[in-house]
């Protein structure tokens, strides 16, 4: 097994540059092949000479010739670099099992996000992994920077040059209770609501928490929170089995209202519509597989072209 600590200390790019010099026996041609400057090639060669304690190449007429150490190094590198290249390229093979990691809120039942997931599932060798951001401690930028996700869906837009943040979907909120609630009809006054107990969705999304604070302080002045959970399904189930009321995403209410015997209450206060954003790394577009997925998403009109925004 390779000593990974020793490999970490060694700049493996030096070996790539060495092999390119060896193949061309020219500093300038190696620079052209690698799209770097001759000065950068010369500096890298000098670093490798110091590490291996050998000149590696010596002048021979108008060109350069490899030393014995360089000849032996090339023999070992030729096969090993080829194996590394094959290992890198294998990730793009269509018959290889792949993973696509998505982070997002508990909105995966929404029609548009379901359509996105179905586009992924059309890939025969792709495993889709969906993580709930309510249970995640890292912020969106850290999730993307550490490559923990291929795509993140969030109600908070990201302003980062390394990331693409595209409006994806609008999510309205409604006020609900069970149909046979003993005190509330289809409409409620502020006086009615202040007497009731509420559920509260526990989330780290800044836009949602800010709305929760404003709704509580500016409009209900001490809203009585009786049940808090990071699970929307737990909140819906609790409303179904109790006299509690809650602010919930409308699309989930539409899906569950008949099954859970729920009704919408006309709120005396304006309720928000949250924007859901699709975020991914610009660097990911260099992957043919990822760029093909994004192209399918655009062709299905789930997102606009970046140039259209």
UniProtKB/TrEMBL annotation:
InterPro entries: LysR-type_TF, LysR_HTH_N, LysR_subst-bd, WH-like_DNA-bd_sf, WH_DNA-bd_sf. It comes from Kluyvera ascorbata. Gene3D superfamilies: Periplasmic binding protein-like II, Winged helix-like DNA-binding domain superfamily/Winged helix DNA-binding domain. It comes from the Bacteria. Belongs to the LysR transcriptional regulatory family. The keyword Cell wall biogenesis/degradation does not apply. Keywords: DNA-binding, Transcription, Transcription regulation. This is LysR family transcriptional regulator. GO terms for molecular function: DNA binding; DNA-binding transcription factor activity. Residues 10-67 form the HTH lysR-type domain. The keyword tRNA processing does not apply. Pfam families: HTH_1, LysR_substrate.
């Amino acid at each position: 097994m390779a000593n990974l600590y020793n490999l970490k200390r060694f700049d493996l790019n030096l070996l790539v540059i060495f092999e390119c010099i060896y193949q061309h026996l020219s500093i300038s041609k190696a620079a052209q092949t690698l799209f770097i400057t001759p000065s950068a090639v010369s500096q890298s060669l000098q670093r490798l000479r110091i590490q291996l304690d050998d000149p590696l190449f010596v002048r021979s007429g108008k060109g350069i010739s490899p030393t014995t150490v360089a000849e032996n190094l090339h023999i070992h590198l030729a096969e090993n670099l080829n194996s590394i290249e094959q290992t890198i390229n294998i990730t793009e093979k269509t018959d290889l099992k792949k993973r696509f990691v998505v982070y997002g809120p508990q909105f995966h039942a929404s029609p548009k996000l379901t359509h996105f997931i179905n586009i992924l599932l059309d890939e025969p060798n792709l495993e889709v992994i969906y993580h709930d951001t309510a249970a995640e401690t890292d912020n969106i930028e850290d999730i993307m920077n550490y490559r923990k996700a291929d795509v993140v869906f969030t109600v908070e837009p990201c302003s980062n040059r390394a990331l693409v943040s595209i409006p994806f979907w609008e999510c309205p909120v409604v006020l609900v209770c069970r149909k046979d609630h003993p005190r509330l009809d289809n409409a409620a006054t502020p006086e009615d609501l202040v007497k009731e107990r509420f559920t509260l969705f526990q989330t780290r999304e800044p836009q949602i928490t800010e709305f929760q604070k404003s709704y509580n302080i500016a409009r209900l002045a001490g809203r009585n929170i009786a049940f808090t959970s990071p699970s929307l399904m737990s909140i819906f189930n609790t409303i179904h089995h109790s006299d509690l009321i809650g602010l919930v995403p409308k699309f989930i209410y539409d899906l569950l209202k008949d099954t859970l015997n729920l009704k919408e209450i006309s709120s005396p206060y304006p309720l928000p519509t949250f924007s859901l954003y699709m975020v991914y790394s610009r660097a990911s577009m260099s992957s043919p597989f990822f760029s093909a997925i994004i192209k399918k998403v655009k062709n299905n009109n789930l997102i606009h072209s970046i140039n259209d925004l």
